[in-house]
Amino acid sequence: MSVPTIMLNDGREIPQLGFGVFQIDPTETAQAVKTALDLGYRHLDTAQMYGNEAETLQGVLDSGVPRGEVWITSKLNNGFHEPDEARQAIDDSVAKLGGPIDLYLIHWPLPTLYGGDFVSTWKVLEEARADGRLKSIGVSNFQVNHLQRLAQETTVVPAVNQIEVHPYFGNEAVRRYCGEHQIGVEAWSPIAQGKVLDDPTITDVARRLGKSPAQVVLRWHIERGDIVFPKSVTPSRMEENFSLFDFELAEEDLALISALDQGDAGRTGGHPDTMDYVPS
Ligand code: NDP
Prior knowledge:
By secondary structure, this protein is α/β, with parallel strands linked by helices. Helix content is 39%, strand content 15%. The strands form two sheets. The chain has an eight-stranded parallel sheet. Strands 1-2 form a two-stranded antiparallel sheet.
């Protein structure tokens, strides 16, 4: 099964479908990653905060798939926004992931911490891209005003913005801004951690097409042009989530699913304007 790629604004191509490892216990991560790679996934999404970067690399090594054939994304932890700490944290991620990182993100903008200064942090990612430690750089959970500030005060436009998106939370204003500024959208919690799978609109479409609710929702993301990396530790679900390229959704079905958007009430995760969690 061939996964399409999305061309980023720096000319690099990312597989549109990947595998997320948030909330996979470090002791189970290498096996889950190996299973995903055996099934054909070639894009992994980890983070310093998940505590499983080294185990993610171990899964790649165990799979026998050359490291160069796998796209790995990681993210700067919330405790390391101060520039010198960010430099060191990037070195730490590079060591754990076995060399230059395909894509590195500021995990959260944290506008209520560090004097609201995520600009200096972004400049450290720019430096690390320039010296080759990071191949592509981007952000996560940035609102429109955060992106506008980067555009005014820095030179490199983020390659992606990784944000919460699923049928109950379309995050449309941020998606629109990203679309207008050539910033790729990565949709996190693409099936809302399972919460959308019992929705009658989704189960109806799934029944009509002979697909699972998760496949219908993931296909909706793919057809909207977003990048997704569902997480599962269940091999049959990992396989199901990878089988998205032998069917399409009709315009009416895409519209029915998009109409489930509840705006901010549909969020399952923290709000980027107030998120201030710093792991101890
Ligand atoms: P997902 O929307 O991917 O949902 C994962 C949950 O759904 C798990 O409980 C899994 O169960 C279950 N599941 C997976 N596939 C199926 C299926 N086919 N049928 C039924 N249930 C299924 O949630 P995540 O929050 O993990 O998001 C995906 C990725 O996004 C993360 O792993 C991470 O990489 C990224 N992320 C980024 C954030 C950020 O701030 N930048 C925040 C949150 C996530 P089980 O494992 O038991 O099979």
